[in-house]
Structures are given as structure tokens and as C-alpha cells.
Design a protein that fits this description.
Structural class: alpha+beta
CATH class: Alpha Beta
Number of helices: 3
Strand content: 35-45%
Largest sheet: 7 strands, mixed
Length: 146
């Protein structure tokens, strides 16, 4: 699904996010495409037709980081709704967020990721995170208090 199909959708689009943890640090990727191009987020993307949500999370982690991961937990669901200047819905995603651990592989930025970096909880506020990720991390207690 190209970006044009994501713009002004007729209904919400389902995606996944994968919060990969290793030794108390979390993997962030810098987004290569809109929405939020250039900002930091977690590996993730859209669920394909006929694909299970968990399989999409495993696939997206591999495509964007080169890592084979195991999903440890489903952390929650995020609504990402972005409006244009006229108030119309420009993007509407429903993102199922998972916590994962590495099974094998070395981190490398691939596919839709410009960069990949590990960050501790205390370092997260120094990154320009997407608003939806920042809000979600606050909700689950991983974003440092202001």
C-alpha cells in the first residue's frame, strides 16, 4: 500500500509497532517516509491483507532492523489520527504495539528506517519521537516525567 492510499482514508488502517528491548534499552528507528518522516519511532508498519497482526509485527521488525524477534507481550493499541488544516482526517491508523526481544541478528537500519539506535528510558526525551509513540510510552510508564 503506497502513501497515496494512506492519505485521506475511507476507514482506519491497521498497523503494528514493535518495542524491542535489550538490556534495559529500547530500539528506535528514524522514519524514512511520511507520516512523521525524520522523526524517531519503533519498528513497525501496516498489516497486509490475510496477515495476522503478530506475523506483521515479526515481519516489520525483520524488514526494518534485520532482527528476528520474539513477541513477549501485547502492550496496547494506539490511535494515530492526523488532520489537515481544514480538519479533515489526513491519516488514521490503529496501531497494535508489541514488546519484543531479539532472537538473532545484528541491528541495521533497513527498508523504511534511516537510522537505528538503542536508547535507555532516561535518554528517550532527547529524541524527537513521534507524538503517538511519546504519548504511548507515557501511558505505559516508559517515558521520563517532565
Amino acid at each position: 500500500m503506497g502513501v497515496s492510499h494512506r492519505l485521506y482514508p475511507e476507514r482506519p488502517i491497521v498497523g503494528v509497532g514493535v518495542l524491542i528491548e535489550k538490556d534495559g534499552r529500547y530500539l528506535l528507528i528514524r522514519r524514512a517516509a511520511d507520516p512523521d518522516k525524520g522523526m524517531w519511532s519503533v519498528p513497525g508498519g501496516l498489516v497486509e491483507i490475510g496477515e495476522r497482526v503478530r506475523d506483521a509485527a515479526l515481519r516489520e521488525a525483520m524488514e526494518e532492523t534485520g532482527l528476528r524477534v520474539e513477541l513477549v507481550d501485547r502492550l496496547g493499541v494506539v490511535d494515530k489520527i492526523m488532520r489537515d488544516d481544514e480538519g479533515r482526517v489526513r491519516y488514521h491508523f490503529i496501531i497494535v504495539q508489541f514488546l519484543a526481544r531479539i532472537v538473532e541478528g545484528e541491528v541495521k537500519a533497513m527498508d523504511d528506517a534511516l537510522e537505528a539506535r538503542w536508547a535507555s528510558i532516561s535518554e528517550l526525551s532527547s529524541y524527537e519521537l513521534t507524538a503517538s509513540l511519546r504519548d504511548f510510552l507515557k501511558e505505559i510508564g516508559l517515558y521520563p516525567a517532565a
